[in-house]
Amino acid sequence: MVIMKKLILVLFTSVSMCVMPPIAPAHEGSNEYQTIFLLQWVYQCSEKLKLQYMGDGTPHQFALQMSIQNCSCMIDSYRQHFSQPEVINMSYEDRTAFGEEYAKICLNIIKQS
Fold first, then answer.
1. Which residue positions in the chain have pLDDT lower than 50?
2. Whole-angstrom distance, CA of residue 63 vs CA of residue 71
3. What is the pLDDT of residue 109?
4. Alpha-carbon span 27 to 25, nearest angstrom
5. 82, 86, 106, 107: most buried by Cβ count inside 10 Å?
6. Residues whose CB falls within 8 Å of the CB of residue 18, separated by 6 or more in sequence, listed in order
7. pLDDT tens digit sequence for 90-105
8. Using CA atoms, how far apart are residues 88 and 82, in angstroms rounded to an integer?
9. Is-contact 84 33, C-beta < 8 A?
10. What secondary structure does DSSP assign to 79-110, as a single string?
């Protein structure tokens, strides 16, 4: 449960810190995310989560691997349900609700519905 809360908090703060070029699809007529947005999101999320794992005593390499895997899983869930502009403009309350569900799925606490 503590890991899930850490994962959700890190994901929320990292999406709001992404320095973004103008919002535009990857290519015309596409609903894909810009590569730079995804890279920044995964990097910022995994760096923060890695430090939290290491603070709990997890060795660096394992903490890095777990943080990248968990952040990527949650981000993939967002990508399946929301466009990039929707994620950027999502309220804190909505990010909390969706993030909590996605974290539970990624950590195998609940099955995907």
1. 21-25, 29
2. 12
3. 84
4. 5
5. 106
6. 37, 40, 41, 44, 88
7. 998 998 889 889 988 9
8. 10
9. yes
10. HHH--HHHHHH--HHHHHHHHHHHHHHHTTSS
